[in-house]
Amino acid sequence: MMGLQGPELTPEEKEAVKALGLRHFILFQRNIIDRDQLLALRRELKALAPEGFLAVDQEGGRVTRIRPPLFPPLSSPLELASSPKASERVAKEAEVCAQALKSLGFNLNLAPVLDLAGEEAPDFLKGRTFGLDPEKVSLLGEVYVRSFLKEGVFCCAKHFPGLGEARIDPHEELPYLPQLREKALLPFKRAIRAGVPLVMTTHLVVEPLDHKPATFSSKIVLWLREKLGFKGLILSDDLFMGAVTRSSTLEEILYFTLEAGHDLLLLGQDFKAGIAAVESLLPRLNRPPLKERVQQSLFRQKRLLSIAS
Asked: Which residue segments constitute the domains of the chain, with CATH numbers given?
């Protein structure tokens, strides 16, 4: 899932999309000027990649890539959770968000954030969560997921297995947790039961589970599949984050993430570097162990996207 450089496709981007068969894209504020421009970009991507995801981080609050007047104003998740009749407010804002995204050509929102964190959360999570209470976060996460599915727009539960107790920002360095508390898993379990179609892992080492970060951990991915019964798509967090780039080349990062069992690899920040790494990886995709892994992921992608067609 590639990030693009600006509001229009460059000749190099068009060539890479065609040559590599890229199908999935994520847009940021740098890609969005106004409605006409955004719809034109969407049409161009659709012509090049008819079946795929067009994603955005439209969480509400400070993580809102599409802003008024192009998009309705969205409160932060923590504001919604702290308000009277929180369930009703979450349902309404999720409905408004999904409808607005659909009108702009998006079919995937990388939300809700299901980490357990409140007012005292570090900056990288502040305001982005539904709070500290696992029961309340689970309920509001389920409401959000069901509202999106009702509108026919995909959503994504993140950041599995839970960043709430981490104090190090994975955008910069790799956080470690000495244990994984059952309460951190409750929101993900409930979202899965509600039918959430995608789950995003995070760059986090949970030492009792694996010495590798979840991004590279086949144990954690298998655990998500078998223990939690998740059948949908598993998406990595952005693979340009410092938590993983400090210790590996981008080609190695892609390989380790695929090998671990992820279905989608997120490369949001540097199109040219991302393409170079993908091209370097291509010869390894037709050999074991990646060949079968990739086929499994392509099957899951096709199955999910067929629901929206």
From this structure: 2-308 (3.20.20.300)
